[in-house]
Amino acid sequence: MKEILNVTSSPHIKHTDTTSGIMLDVIIALLPAAAFGCILFGSRALAVLAVTVTVSVLSEFLWNKILKKPSTVGDLSAVVTGLLLGLNLPATVPLWMVAIGAAVAIIVVKQMFGGIGCNFANPAITARIVLLVSFPAAMTVYTEPVSDTVTSATPLTYISATEGVPTVKNLFFGMHSGCIGETSAFLLLVGGAYLVIRKVISPIIPACFVGTVALLNLVSGDNVSVAVLGGGIMLGAIFMATDYTTSPTNPLGKLIFGIGCGLITFVIRKFAALPEGVSYAILIMNILVPYINRLTRRKPFGFVKPQKEGNNG
Question: Which domains occur in the chain, in start order?
Answer without folding.
Answer: 20-295 (1.10.3430)
